[in-house]
Design goal:
By secondary structure, the protein is mostly beta strands. It is globular. It is built from no helices and 25 strands. It has a 5-stranded mixed β-sheet, with no helix packed on it.
Length: 352
Amino acid sequence: MGVWNLPKLDRGASAPAARGGHAIASIGSRVICFGGADRSPTPFSDLWELDTGRHCNQWTRIQSTANVERGKLVPRSGATMTAAGDILYIFGGQDPVTGGCYNDLIMLDSRTWQWMALEVSGVRPPARHSHITGLVQKNTLVVFGGAGAQGPLGDLWVFDLTSRQWSQPATQGDPPAPREMHTGTMLDDTRMLIYGGRGPDGKVLCDACLFDASSLTWRLKEPTPFARCAHTAVALPSEAGCSGNHQSDNDEPMSSGPETEHMCVLVYGGFSGDAVEGDLISIDPDGIDVQMVSRGPDQGEQRLDQQIPQARFAHGAVRVPSTALDHGKDMVVFGGVNPLQDLNDVAIWQGM
């Protein structure tokens, strides 16, 4: 189904410091990394770019400029960064030293690397970290869950990028329980798969749930065999990681149209409640079919010629156009932590 590639950094080249809890997004072949913290904990506010289309072994430090009258880009971990065209939106996060959380929304233009804190209307979401943010129909941000002053949250908020207004719409269906450190993966312009996380009782969760933003409806909430939190999840064409059945449990197609490419969600790493994991799992969102794709470095037999990245959690992962000619998309993983060390390596899953 695919192979791991572990590119080595060029000798003497600069790179982000080892970290976890950073925000990561992709614009075409460019991978953008912001913030995070090491285990000391020292929070970061730096910006880095990795261009996988030209040279996937080379990082570039971004020197951003700010409109000082519109806020301050403070160090933080547990924020989200979401790309809408060439614009990146950073929301929330936490100062791991003080424990204070944020609910500001920062707009960063990747063409000029100028950022500003947005002036918004409507009631803002409560401050939070370890939440998820998805882009719906190219003009709306959807935020779900995370952790605030009172612990894990189960609320859903919408931000209109045109009017710059927050709202908390009523939803239908059976929503997921409150959680933090989960993933929310956009399958297309309107559907998001929520997976895993950690609940208010500290239990690591194993369920997956589909949210249809077009009707504000929660659908198909199902348990899976694998509990995970602080993992990553990326949507790739089904050929890159899973063999989908293309049907939901009631035999009704879940795709948004006949031209929609069938996607699977690749879940990598995270904490299971017992151990830090290094395996790769696929979830077919049509029926929540789950498969093991690649085992971690200490799980089962591995071929001598096989490269397997270290187990980790609190890392980042994004989808980028493939650097190979025989398949469509790659998943790029950066950083994270494990019991022994903080990481700043790059690992690329290349689907076949």
